[in-house]
Task: inverse folding
């Protein structure tokens, strides 16, 4: 960690430095491709932006970052031109800096607490983190740590999203044998099957998986733990501990008539079919979406923005996002909504679906909606949408996507004796990921509910330390 008190920094002068422009694809161009919206930085721009960091001694950005990256330390190295050194500072605390730099909602984390942001645009920490991590990966490859001798202990990791990858890396780095089980055909979990290509290129996931392969981590796809293999069977196969990091991937239904019609998709189904090649999908999902001209996406979070923007790129002429509250209550990132608007998506607020209507061919042809007014706050603290009588209207739709949130699949605690669920349907686990079953640990969205990549990583790191301690106590005969 940098000793910022000793630094000779002219903070007033730095506060006057102009923010650098972070290049993006023009909306008119990007709607015709699936490439990332943000384009790479050049070294000079990155250094100038890093120099805007005033190296304040308190560094609230470190506290606001869930994995406590030494952001000023990394940016100091970057401004000095030491790009690899900057990447290494991020990698001291982060297994996935190139991903966090792209995916974190920085405005409510590191950048949201940046002191420069009180008087100017905050330092673009996320884009700088992505830049230095990319540079290191592209020039040197992902760093491979020196591994200790094999401890003789084996851990089954369920799920290969951010939590699973972090636990796999931490445990392999401590000499344990790790095998990762993924329900989807390919590894990556939400990073591959949930994040659209225009937010993060899939090669980042592939390179991370390759790095873990080289560290000795094994991957098995198309395995649904709790269905194909139970947790008890994993122990019977000789695993000494099991980590559950399967996330919260079950889409919530609207429960309105017509939701089962062909042409009405759940968000993940729509996203994977539009963003991934068929050979990376299970056989029943390989048929491409018949997108048509008009797409209606229901929901107001980041996943709905992913869906509307995927719909635009998949060739729809008119794409609507329908949300039952106002934009002020939307939970997703403002930047994502701005990108969607730039790409021609239209928003309809204070409107809730009533039913979906089939055409002569049996496919959805329209969605029927009702206007709502916002009333008193509900249990979420946001105003409750109250239907306006007589306000129903129809919107023609060739494709409808339901993107109203996710929950944890119940399969695992239904098929694992002694594994407790928490009240809200998530897995019950303490701060170190210890569940009610000895030797079974859990962290990430399956414990805290659908949340961020970086919070799953932070929780997973603590769980990995607890698993390591558990295995060492086992060696000593204490468990
Ligand atoms: Fe910011 Fe996320 Fe990187 Fe932390 S991990 S520094 S919150 S972008």
Result:
């Amino acid at each position: 960690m940098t000793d910022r008190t000793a630094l000779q920094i002219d903070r007033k002068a730095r506060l006057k430095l102009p923010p650098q422009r972070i290049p993006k694809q023009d909306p008119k161009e990007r709607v015709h491709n699936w490439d990332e919206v943000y384009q790479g930085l050049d070294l000079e721009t990155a250094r100038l932006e890093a120099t805007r960091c005033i190296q304040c001694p308190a560094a609230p950005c470190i506290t606001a970052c869930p994995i406590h990256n030494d952001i000023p330390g990394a940016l100091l190295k970057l401004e000095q031109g030491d790009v690899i050194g900057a990447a290494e500072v991020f990698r001291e605390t982060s297994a996935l800096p190139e991903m966090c730099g792209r995916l974190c909602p920085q405005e409510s984390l590191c950048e949201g607490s940046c002191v420069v942001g009180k008087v100017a645009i905050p330092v673009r920490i996320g884009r700088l983190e992505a830049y230095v991590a990319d540079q290191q990966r592209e020039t040197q490859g992902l760093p491979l740590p020196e591994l200790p001798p094999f401890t003789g202990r084996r851990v089954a990791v369920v799920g290969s999203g951010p939590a699973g990858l972090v636990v796999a890396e931490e445990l392999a780095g401590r000499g344990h044998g790790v095998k990762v089980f993924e329900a989807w055909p390919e590894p990556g979990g939400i990073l591959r099957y949930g994040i659209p290509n225009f937010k993060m290129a899939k090669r980042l996931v592939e390179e991370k998986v390759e790095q873990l392969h080289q560290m000795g981590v094994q991957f098995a796809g198309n395995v649904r733990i709790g269905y194909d293999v139970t947790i008890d069977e994993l122990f019977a196969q000789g695993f000494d501990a099991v980590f559950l990091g399967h996330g919260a991937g079950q889409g919530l239904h609207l429960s309105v008539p017509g939701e089962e019609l062909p042409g009405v998709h759940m968000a993940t189904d729509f996203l994977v079919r539009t963003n991934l090649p068929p050979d990376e999908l299970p056989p029943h999902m390989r048929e491409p979406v018949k997108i048509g001209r008009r797409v209606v996406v229901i929901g107001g979070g980041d996943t709905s923005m992913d869906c509307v923007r995927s719909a635009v790129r998949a060739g729809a002429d008119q794409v609507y996002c329908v949300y039952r509250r106002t934009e002020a209550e939307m939970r997703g990132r403002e930047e994502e909504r701005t990108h969607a608007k730039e790409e021609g998506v239209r928003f309809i607020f204070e409107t809730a679906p009533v039913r979906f209507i089939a055409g002569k061919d049996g496919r959805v042809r329209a969605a029927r909606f009702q206007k709502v007014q916002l009333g008193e706050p509900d249990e979420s603290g946001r105003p409750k949408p109250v239907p306006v009588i007589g306000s129903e209207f129809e919107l023609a739709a060739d494709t409808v996507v339901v993107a109203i949130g996710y929950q944890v699949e119940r399969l695992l605690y239904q098929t694992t004796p002694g594994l407790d669920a928490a009240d809200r349907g998530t897995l019950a686990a303490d701060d170190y990921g210890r569940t009610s079953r000895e030797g079974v640990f859990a962290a990430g969205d399956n414990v805290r509910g659908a949340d961020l990549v970086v919070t799953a990583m932070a929780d997973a790191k603590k769980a990995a330390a607890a698993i390591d301690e558990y295995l060492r106590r086992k060696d000593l005969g204490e468990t």
Observations:
- Residues 185 and 283 are 10 Å apart (CA to CA).
